[in-house]
């Protein structure tokens, strides 16, 4: 029987152990999609305590706490920090089979050197020890990032954002590149009541009077150029319900005018508008040599009661099951037809349903000189656990070319989440090791080691174009 979280955690074969310890473990980290706060990085904040650092904005943990019966007051409410932490310590032993159990203890070990397992018995000791460490300069936000050997971080940012702190970090020459990602979701959701308020904000920031679809596109393209100057290399789109029906600029102008007049927008009209904007922005991304990310399949704010109480992004989202293969195919094909398709990463939140569909679709739009121009993206959100990661890798290997894969990301709001890269790397090495041990691939460790290093770091660095 193996010990929990020993040096060969998740590594079953000798080949897997060699690939991880000799190759994967030494690679730096590029986290090309997360929701970290650039202000906290610039100001090099220190967390008051472990509860704030660990539980302050982590809806993964909040969902587990609710499932075990903890009151909302002791999750997102006004209960004292130590009480909230104690509830987490009580919950953790029940998380057998959930990646949160491994992540929790990887984070305690990799950041703070704590090897005791978290439980009510160890809660006080761990909380006090980590709290003392967090007050030291060696455990500030920047120091926590440096401990994980991170070279590049890409945050997620609204087009109207000033990018003040990204620019300050760049001017300062901070050794980790903290780059913005362009996420124009609010400018695309013409079906929402908040759309015109957002348009007013974007108009003010861009200096362009946005009174039509064409003016909106001009304002967004201007903001893309602004992001370029701040170091931006990626966009990100969360695509939910209908994705695409047709490309129609004239119709989109009419739909915008209708919205500006206070009239209701149908789902069909919203899809035309959103799809047209996706195409036109895709052209701009391609012009800038950006990578476009498409995150597909979130069903958000499912509990109306809790949404009205707490707002969005509090752990009440899940995966959707709508069918969209013809829509995403048409979107990519329109861009590809005139060589306007940017480098594109497609992520599925419903991996068990959509993985093979998206992996084969990605293969339809590959183009020289890129290695994997259209990427079947990493296991994301509800899929970033052992089963989900393995399913994604096995699917890509089965119908695509795994060595072109650009690897893992955290998609996290937590500065303590980076051991998830280690978790992924161990699973990758175990998968390759199993193929070798089963006689399905030669034991060419040198070639396999280079493959591992590429997937962990080199592929994404070259693909996105990081310095």
How would you sum up this structure, described in words?
With 467 residues, the protein is α/β, with parallel strands linked by helices. The chain has 2 domains: 14-37 and 151-464, TIM Barrel (Alpha-Beta Barrel), CATH 3.20.20; 46-139, Orthogonal Bundle (uronate isomerase, domain 2, chain A). The protein contains 20 helices and 10 strands. It has a 5-stranded parallel β-sheet with strand order 4-5-6-9-10, covered by helices on one side. Helix 14 runs parallel beside helix 16 (325-337) and helix 17 (351-363) runs parallel beside helix 18. The chain starts with 13 loop residues before the first helix and ends with a helix. The model has no long low-confidence stretch (mean pLDDT 97).
């Amino acid at each position: 029987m193996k010990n929990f979280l020993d040096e060969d955690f998740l590594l079953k074969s000798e080949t897997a152990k060699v690939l991880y310890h000799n190759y994967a473990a030494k690679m730096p980290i590029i986290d090309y999609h997360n929701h970290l706060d650039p202000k906290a990085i610039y100001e090099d904040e220190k967390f008051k305590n472990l509860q704030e650092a660990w539980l302050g904005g982590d809806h993964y943990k909040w969902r587990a706490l609710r499932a075990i019966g903890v009151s909302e007051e002791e999750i997102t409410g006004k209960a004292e920090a130590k009480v909230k932490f104690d509830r987490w310590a009580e919950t953790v032993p029940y998380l057998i089979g959930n990646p949160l159990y491994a992540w929790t203890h990887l984070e305690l070990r990799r950041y703070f050197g704590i090897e005791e397992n978290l439980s009510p018995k160890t809660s006080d000791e761990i909380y006090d020890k980590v709290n003392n460490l967090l007050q030291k300069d060696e455990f500030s936000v920047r120091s926590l990032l440096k401990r994980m050997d991170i070279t590049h971080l890409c945050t997620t940012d609204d087009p109207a954002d000033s990018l003040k702190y990204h620019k300050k970090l760049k001017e300062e020459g901070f050794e980790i590149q903290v780059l913005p990602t362009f996420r124009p979701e609010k400018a695309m959701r013409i079906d929402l009541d908040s759309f015109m308020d957002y348009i007013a904000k974007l108009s003010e920031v861009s200096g362009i009077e946005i009174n039509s679809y064409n003016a909106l596109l001009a304002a967004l393209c201007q903001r893309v150029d602004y992001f370029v100057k701040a170091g931006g290399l990626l966009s990100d789109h969360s695509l939910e319900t209908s994705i695409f029906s047709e490309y129609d600029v004239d119709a989109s102008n009419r739909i915008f005018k209708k919205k500006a007049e206070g009239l209701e927008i149908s789902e069909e009209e919203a899809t035309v508008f959103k799809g047209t904007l996706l195409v036109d922005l895709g052209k701009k991304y391609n012009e800038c040599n950006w990578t476009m990310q498409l995150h597909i399949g979130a069903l958000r704010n499912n509990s109306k009661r809790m949404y009205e109480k707490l707002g969005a992004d509090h752990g009440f989202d899940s995966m959707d099951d709508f069918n969209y293969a013809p829509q995403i195919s048409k979107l990519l094909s329109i861009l590809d037809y005139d060589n306007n398709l940017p480098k594109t990463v497609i992520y599925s939140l419903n991996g068990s349903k959509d993985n093979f569909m998206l992996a084969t679709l990605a293969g339809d739009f590959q183009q020289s000189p890129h290695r994997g121009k259209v990427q079947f993206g990493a296991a994301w959100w509800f899929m970033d656990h052992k089963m989900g990661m393995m399913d994604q890798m096995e699917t890509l290997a089965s119908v695509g070319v795994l060595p072109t894969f650009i690897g893992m990301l955290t998609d996290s709001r937590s500065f303590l989440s980076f051991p998830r890269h280690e978790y992924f790397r161990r699973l990758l090495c175990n998968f390759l090791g199993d193929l070798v041990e089963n006689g399905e691939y030669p034991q060419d460790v040198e070639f396999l080691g280079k493959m591992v290093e590429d997937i962990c770091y080199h592929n994404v660095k070259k693909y996105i174009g990081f310095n």
